[in-house]
Amino acid sequence: MRAGAAIADVSAGLFAALGIMTALLEREQSGEGQWVQSNLLHSQIALLDFQAARYLMKGASSTRR
Question: Is this model's pTM higher than 0.90 or not?
């Protein structure tokens, strides 16, 4: 089922913003720069981890509501 918004794009952008903020905080504390990466696949997998946990714990797959 298609979502109304580009979920992978939005979540990858949010994870990138969080990574940038964390890198800036680290730079303030240590004085060293950081390398920040974000991609669509990893962000989508991060959003689906609860589905995998439910399947592994209960054997139940998600259903359409």
Answer: no
